[in-house]
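Notes from the pairing session

We agreed to fold both candidates in a single pass and log them together. This is the raw record for the first candidate, unedited. Please don't reformat it; downstream parsing expects exactly this layout.

Candidate A
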Amino acid sequence: MTTPTSGDLRGTQFVDANLRGARFVRSDLSGVVMRGVDAGGADIDAPWLPDGEHAFLVNGVDVVPFVEAELDRRFPGREQRRAGDPDGLRAAWAAVERTWAATLERVAAMPPGTVDVSVDGEWSFAQTLRHLVLATDTWLRKAVLGVDQPYHPLGVANAEAASDGLDMSLFTTGTPSFDEVLDARAGRVAMVRDFLAAVGPDVLAEPHRNPWAPEYPETTLSCLHTILEEEWEHHRYAVRDLDAIEAGEGAPATRANSRS
């Protein structure tokens, strides 16, 4: 097994280096320059592609607009995730609910145990839903609503949340049944729906503390945008992994932490 490499490698030059099959997880590759490289078969998953500030160039072409347009085509409703008014946000959440409902139907038709299968060390389908429970708790119950104890015990956090001081003792260490996961997830989905049903423009503009970085203010709108981003990114991961499982690429579930 290859020993993982970590640490500060800023400014390192790789010349005539063989990086075939190398894997970069939770790594900062911003500003990386590659010249005369063989990138055949490369697979890049970057949920935070540059958004206006910097380009992502391949052979001199900024590919970000093409990637975004293709993802919007593949996942109808995704283009609504940055809606800025109450009606737009309600429509955006309805699209999220429709999309996940279809995916849950797909999973129900797959072999038993599919929801607990991990692909390439990533979260299983059940763990993904549990993480979305935590995301809703973080950005709606904690940031916007100010609930003192916002977290459902079935939530699943990533490595960054743990390092940012999230009390991991709040969460179950066992493996809940999928019915329990679905129940927790349905409750959080309904919570967002109910909040959006009554939200007005004035509430969208209200300031809140960022739950991970309190020194940076967030508005209700920006918190809702984060929830929508979480929903669509993790749906993309889930569909990708379900495709892999159907192709026979699954492995036993693990507690992966490479996602946002």
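Candidate B (folded immediately after A)
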Amino acid sequence: MPELTPQERLDKQKTLRDWLRWQLSQSDEAIRRLERQVEEDRRRRDVARIEMSWKLQPPRADGAQPMLHRGNCGLFKTLTGYLDKDHVVIAFDQFPDLEMCEICAPWGLLGIPKPTPRKPSP
């Protein structure tokens, strides 16, 4: 088998370099696509977790009770402090007269009947 000339070896190396650049660009694109997918999956999990949780709005006045909202209720916005069902039970123990948002209806996700409306204090 005859030995390749320096020019032939140079041409082969350039061809290999070009092919490796193409492979690298393909890998970079695959990485970007997978990173977007991982981020979207994380975002969807966060949204699902928030939708299946609750949040407790502090009382608005002295002597008032906190109000329970579903995690995705827009009436009380918070980025932290989401409660799971066990923590909602604790909140009910601590605040027996806990109010519930009429808009997001947190009782439905809890599997309890709609509370009877409270009569305003005189």
